Amino acid sequence: MPSASREAQRTLRAMHPEALVRDHTIYACVMGSRAFGLATDGSDTDRRGVFLAPTPLFWRFDKPPTHVEGPGEEQFSWELERFCELALRANPNILECLHSPLVEHADDTGRELLGLRAAFLSRQAHTTFARYAVGQRKKLEADVRNHGAPRWKHAMHLLRLLMSARDLLRTGDLRIDVGDQREPLLAVKRGELTWPEVESWMTRLAEEAEAAARRSPLPAEPDRRRVEDFLVRVRRASALQPDPYDEVVQGVVDGRRLGQG
Q: Cα separation of 30 and 74, whole Å?
């Protein structure tokens, strides 16, 4: 049996954020302007991912992190359970991450997660997308009051979000690539429209989204049970895997040490 100090060292290695992202990522994609079809020569490459922390790590007082920033630049990852929680709440950033057209990695579990995309979608998206849009618009309006103009890049992305929300509510499908709206949106980013013109566009999109919500083909609620069944099954499978970090905990899983102590 390994000593307590060796166990602690193994657990620390397992819990290290970089190790969780490096060794346990189940899904990774590119987000931001590149996924939206709005990239220009100077655009960053924003990477997002989902990692599955080994189940035995949750049996300790110190739990694995719910999210990890890095280790690469512009990289951010969520632990699977946290990711599912946010997706069930119709968090715009999370739902869009699940629908990125630029998938860089998906193992078997990641492909199962992608197969559940429809289970996360519901008419709740109208509330969350609209709430987020209102907050962003207030920030833009403050910029106009304080500086005479908004941050045009942020205005462009808010318009894109409003388009995405409207079309989701109309069709039941979330598409994040802007398609033929690329040039009109980039014109906003370049400051080629006046703020009143952009404001009018935002108002119209918000009204169209509200109208679409009243007759949307989306269900009223997400399929929480289906998502939870997936999470439990994945956690159980992870618990039964040979654990390179904690042989004592794995012994409990295998039933060799039950009833001792």
A: 10
